[in-house]
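Handout, page 2. Input:
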Amino acid sequence: MKSAILLRLALGLIFLTTLPSCGFAFRKAWKEAPTSTGVEGKWSGTWHSDATGHQGTLRCVVSAPIDKKGGHEFFYLATWKKILSGSYKAVHTVKKQKDGTYTFEGEHKMPDWAGGLYHYEGTIKGNDFNACYQSSMDRGTYTMKRVP
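Output:
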């Protein structure tokens, strides 16, 4: 009996000590991201799944162009239930429109249990970031504002 309690306690402590390390690379990128105009820089807001109704906070760091085709690395950190979080990177092709709005699209492969291939499409106009995502298991929206 005592050993079962000690085992649960040890596993709980391991879980609690590893939780803060989730997203460490994202936090570093967030801290180092310069203030910018256009698409680059820091964004913060929410995500919402139209398929499940789940939602949470969302942050993103968008890099400067990484290729001549307009590719930018979008580094996302999403939270669920206020305590679980996950980060991932996706390359999106960005195009500047005549009216100054930026459009982007791209794909990202997640594990099959998480929906597999995700497709993203969105717009950035001024300080507003709006996007839709879709996979075989989920679809929803990202709504964010620029962080100065």
